């Protein structure tokens, strides 16, 4: 008794049969690929933030002078600070609904002494949050893909084992 399920599609006027296992494999490979992309982006954002933190070793006090808004209405503070007698302004490339500081407040910034316009705001956790979200989505997709592949291999093995053990020679055909 053949229990295989096949999916059929037409290519250049001829029918092509594809097993359901192949279709599941393609879908799960897509899940793993998308998960890998999301996870990779999350890891890259995290590594970039860590690199910036490692380079920015000097603490300065900055004034929040204004907000910069993106097209979605999210904002990031614009900081003004003085380092070695020179006035600098800094604003992060990440925007949020709830910026870490309000206009008029003092803020701690960490700057790169070799490139004082390069900074990060220790109180701003937006990049860390974004990196974590991308990693969770990515590893979730990869996990789903791997789990479904393992379960389908296990079920396929059980099905083959059951088919091998079944003896249909004593059964009459359906009438």
Mean pLDDT: 84
Shape: elongated
Please give the number of β-strands. 7
Number of continuous helical runs: 2
- Share of β-strand residues: 25-35%
Structure description:
- A hairpin with a 2-residue loop joins β1 and β2 (14-19).
- The relative contact order is 0.18.
- It is built from two helices and seven strands.
- The protein is an alpha+beta fold and 175 residues long.
- The model has no long low-confidence stretch (mean pLDDT 84).
- It has helices spanning 20-55, 126-165; strands at 6-11, 14-19, 58-69, 75-83, 86-91, 106-112, 115-120.
- The chain is elongated.
- It folds into two domains: 6-43 and 130-163; 55-125, Beta Barrel (OB fold (Dihydrolipoamide Acetyltransferase, E2P)).
- The strands form two sheets. The chain has a five-stranded antiparallel beta sheet, with helices on one face. A two-stranded antiparallel ribbon has the order 1-2.
Q: Could you give the topology of this structure?
A:
Layout: E1 6-11, E2 14-19, H1 20-55, E3 58-69, E4 75-83, E5 86-91, E6 106-112, E7 115-120, H2 126-165
Antiparallel strand pairs: 1-2, 3-4, 3-6, 4-5, 6-7
Short description:
The chain is α+β, with helices and mostly antiparallel strands and 175 residues long. Helix content is 43%, strand content 30%.
Question: Main attributes?
Answer:
2 domains, 175 residues, OB fold (Dihydrolipoamide Acetyltransferase, E2P), alpha+beta
């Amino acid at each position: 008794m053949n229990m295989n399920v096949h999916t059929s599609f037409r290519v250049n006027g001829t029918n092509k049969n594809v097993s359901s296992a192949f279709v599941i494999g393609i879908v799960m490979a897509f899940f793993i690929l998308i998960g890998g992309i999301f996870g990779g982006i999350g890891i890259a954002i995290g590594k970039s933030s860590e690199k910036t933190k490692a380079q920015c070793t000097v603490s300065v006090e900055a004034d929040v002078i204004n907000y910069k808004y993106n097209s979605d209405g999210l904002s990031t503070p614009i900081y003004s600070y003085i380092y070695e007698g020179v006035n600098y302004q800094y604003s992060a490339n990440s925007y949020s609904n709830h910026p870490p500081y309000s206009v008029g407040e003092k803020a701690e910034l960490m700057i790169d002494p070799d490139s004082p316009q390069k900074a990060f705001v220790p109180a701003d956790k937006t990049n860390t949050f974004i990196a974590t979200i991308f990693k969770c989505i990515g590893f979730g997709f990869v996990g789903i893909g791997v789990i479904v592949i393992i379960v389908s291999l296990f079920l396929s093995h059980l099905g083959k084992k059951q088919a091998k053990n079944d003896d249909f020679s004593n059964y009459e055909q359906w009438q």
